[in-house]
Amino acid sequence: MTTSPAQIHTVYYDGVCPLCRSEMGVLMRNNDTGLLRFVDISRPDFDAAALGVTQAALMARLHVQAPDGTWLIGVPAVRAAYAATGHHRVAALLAVPLLARLAEPAYAWLADHRYRLPHWLLKAARLHASSCAPQGSCHAR
């Protein structure tokens, strides 16, 4: 299947964060339609200023840039990424107003504390991850 650039969302993620890498691995592994492009913002050659945003803002929350150039940040970014990879139930749940209101503070807490999460939680997150290249190609561990 060929995907036109007009359909591709770009996901900007923290490649140093173990939890973030794990979730991106799930998304990359399920990016069969090619609707997502992944950019590791922790790479030394990454330039946030070229996007008109700060590195600090990108590091604080997951950012997805829609094909029309608009930004989705935090839970809306997660929802869009999961929808694009066929996880429609997760995306639909995150769109339910009550669940979305609950997800926002939970996501914010996880994002703010992602480097201090207990090792058992990070180990559990890695169980469903795979080794994926920044372009989205994956190899099972």
UniProtKB/TrEMBL annotation:
Pfam families: DCC1-like (PF04134). It comes from the Bacteria. This is Thiol-disulfide oxidoreductase DCC family protein.
